Structure formats: C-alpha cells, structure tokens
Amino acid sequence: MSNNLLAGKVGIISGALDSKSIAWKVAQKAHAEGARFVLTNAPLAMRMGEIKQLAEECGALIVPADATSVEELENLFSQATEHLGGKLDFVLHSIGMSPNIRKKKHYGELDYKFFQQTLDVSALSFHKMMAVAERQDAMKEWGSIVALSYIAAQRVFPDYTDMSQAKAMLESIARNYGYRLGKLKKVRVNTISQSPTKTTAGTGVGGFDAFYDYADKMSPLGNAPAEACADYCITLFSDLTRYVTMQNLLHDGGFSSTGISEDVVEALMKMNS
What we know:
273 residues; alpha/beta; Rossmann fold; 7-stranded parallel sheet; 15% strand; oxidoreductase; enoyl-[acyl-carrier-protein] reductase (NADH) activity; lipid metabolism; fatty acid biosynthesis
C-alpha cells in the first residue's frame, strides 16, 4: 500500500545488484511511494546483476559509476540532476566489498592492499559521494543521504574481518559529513545498521547461515528482512524524519540490545544435555 511519502521527490539509488539486494527493494518501494530516481552501480557489478530489469520496472535511468572514482561520481551526479530536472532529495549508498573476505583470508593474514580496497569501496566512497554532491550543490535543502551499515562496526564478528573497520569508518563519515551538510544545506546523513540479510554479498561471509540463525534467535522480533529495511529507508528519505541526522540507526529486531535470549539458552542447554 502506497502512502505517497516520496511524491515529487528525486534521488540516486546505488548498489541494486539483483532482487535479493536491499537497494533493489528500496528502489521498488521508492517508486511505489512516488519518487523518481537514477540507478547506479559499478560497471562490473552491472554486468553480473539484473539492474536493467529493475530500471524498466521503475522507469529509471541507469548511470554506471565506480564509486571509488571521483570523476565517475561527478558524471553520475551531473547526469542525475540533469535527467531528474534539478537537485536531489535523497541518495542511498548501498556499497560494500572485501577482497579479503572473498579470498577467505582470516583476520591475522589480511592482505593490506585488499584492506585498502575494502576501505575505499565500502567507506571512502561514501565521503567521495557526498563531497561531489557538495561541490556540485546537488542536494536540496532538507534532503536525506543514507548508507547501509552493520553492527560489526561496534562488535567483533570474526568472519567479517576488515569489513568491520570499513563499517566503523562509514559510520564516522556519516557523523562528520552529516554535521557539515547539516550546517551548509540542512541535509541529513544517517546510517542504518541492518540485521544479517540474505543478500548476494551477505551470504558470501563465512558461516553466514549459522550466524543468521543465531541472530534470529537472539532478536525478540527476529531478523529484519530486506523489505523492512527498505521501508525504513523510505521513512528516512521522507519529510517525516527531517530532524534525524548523524545517527547510526539500529534496524535489527532488537538484537543489539539483547544480552542473551531464551531461545539461545534453550539451544545451548540441548547441546550440553
């Protein structure tokens, strides 16, 4: 059911790879709520994914861009504002990649060149994106910029390795640039710390299925699905959250506030009996 929360609003949505992607769900929800937007992803990811199908469904223009390249981001924002007829109301940063995780390197044997790539793709790209938006004066006043994070920024999850540092940096960038853009343009910047989600990227982390089940048992509401995260993004793009900024917003069914749950206790007791 649509409430037209984004009627007349325009923006950029990055990171929609396939129908499992949170960004894919955000695009569908934004379209249903009346928004128009440009879709973007890295050229390689676009060849692997199904973004053209989503673009047809939502009537969206696709502008390929490597988010680590300032030049390509400049082209993205200039094309988006031209195509959409003016400044932007919202931007979604849904970008993350770790070569170390892909190569299954444990934390003690990280390849540091890979580590730098992880930080550049997963965190510094967020700074670059906002810096380009600032220089081009691409955002409307009271606009909203959102990035997707994970609680490994604050806690240790061994198989998440260097992505933990990337998410911590992402959240720090959101706070610092949120202050700057808030003072300059009343633009708000937030991150959403989402439950483990069965996306193509998420399931690539070692031991994902076991941790997904553990988080589900730990959360009184259960793991938040991708569709619910998309709903949360829509509220942050809307005018209903105009004074929410510089926050890391936990969208995890209560996982982050639960010490231990009855379900986990029962599972441990069964294992030890």
